[in-house]
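So, can you check these tokens?
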Amino acid sequence: MDLRGKTLSASGFHSPVRGKIDSLDDVLIEIDAAGTIKAIHRHGDPNYRTIRDARDATGELVTLPAGSYLLPGFVDLHVHAPQYPQLGDALDVPLEVWLQKHTFPLEARYQDAAFARHVYGLLVDDLLANGTTTALYFATIHQEATRALVDICLEKGQRALIGKVAMDNPQECPDYYRDASVEDALDGTRALIDYVRGHADNGEGRVLPVVTPRFIPSCTDATLEGLGAIARECGCHVQTHCSESDWEHGYVLTRHGMTDAGSLDRFGLLRRGTVLAHANFLTARDMDVIKAREAAVAHCPLSNAYFANAVFPLRAALEKGLHVGLGTDISGGPSASMLENARGAILASRMLQSGVDPNVPAETRSTFGRAQIDFRDAFHIATAGGGAALNLPIGQFVPGYQFDAIVIDTANAKGTVRLFEDRDEGEGILQKIIYTASRPNIAATWVGGRGA
């Protein structure tokens, strides 16, 4: 259903401020012809009934059924689009083995544009069905395949940020899968930026280009320097991996004599709109630099459990004021569901706070301190936090923001949410949604007011 130019009558939740849930009880959301939220009228406002009756009389009122709740669409800050075919595979090996033995051979297949279109079409459909209205995508080194991902996101209506991966370091990238030279890496990046910005179907800017050094090990210093210059020139977003695992973090310390964050900063790759995936081994100084540059972290709790060798200190980063959003890290994380990753973020934080060794007394089991978050923080980083990380007007229901939203149908018999009238109310309903909802509960998805 197209909601542009309509008024939606709904109840739901959003979290513009970390740690707080705003319950929207029987509100009216006016959506303009461009898919932007024009106004929100709460039940009890002086003109609420007049506006509702007027919209109903003109046929502009759309009402959600009982048992349905409106949420902002999920913002996934870290997706490797070409890795979708191996979702759930090879999670029993270290990161460096996983890359060389499994991932790089798969990504090399995207030289075949038909294969790319098939996989990318399935991926975008599945993410939209899971409630992901915005995705930050790593593609591959291949120009035609990456352009196909741009085309598919525009065709299917998903908001997306897409980067042609730059990786030219022959010491860490296989001969069969890497940019042939610094010039190839940089020229390919510029070519994709031009393609996205000049696309005939992208007048609204629903798809944005991203400067994408895969990570420091995969890039020569000359390419990192050149990508920093491109980011400054074009004003594009930047995405890369940062201090992801013991191996990767140690590699950068050995090669550059400093952490990933420090090294990325000297190449001009830390800026507003930069998203650093994982960031498990950030130092206090790293956090200071990231905050000063207004860059962001994509927290990927499920993939961190398999490949990071550590737990990202999410609460510490949030309390320090860093921009943090949530990422699935398809396919390092085995689920395309942002709900499952939200649960993973809660679980990881609790284990970090409590400690995990049963042979250590409870009072000394944890050496980290306060780390636990709850469903409120998880919901925030999956929605408004992701929007803030990207510096885009998405992730919350306020005038001037895009109407990117999903409907959770708690009454769907095939779903996994069960509410009881005598006990579930207010934000307790949202808590149940975060902990128990699944794909069958997602009844509708809108991006910019258009059904997807």
